[in-house]
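#structure-requests
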Amino acid sequence: MKKIIFVFFLFIGLTSAQAENRVIESNSIVGFWQHIRVTKNADGTNQIAPSGIYKVINADSTFFSFMTSPTGSGLALTMFGSYKVTSDSTYTENVQTSLSALGLPTKNNDMRYKLVDKNTLFVQFHVLSNDTWTPEIWVRVTIKEMNTGGMVTLK
């Protein structure tokens, strides 16, 4: 596990030094995404907030996700593997390693997706344990947000 974290930090360090030259604008699911949690307030209105979970979907058909600690003092690589887009609204993740307790096995998982706009991704994944489709909202993190020292800020 220490090797995986070391490699992850090494990767981030090497790529962020030249990120301006390497990050390409994408109109697809390829990108650096931040998970958004939606909860109901007591008055019935929605409250949105970053969850601390991030997913990087690479153009070479690989992906990984990681989670930051609530205090922001650490992070953990939670999942990695490869993916294949199967239509304009579905893709399959081939999860090679997962530390998730969400019922996603380390195998092929069918995912439904919709790009709401260029920077908002709606995903549904199938949870085997209760045979339901679970929705998620992801917001693209841009190079500008990374350079200003923060991630997506929700208003």
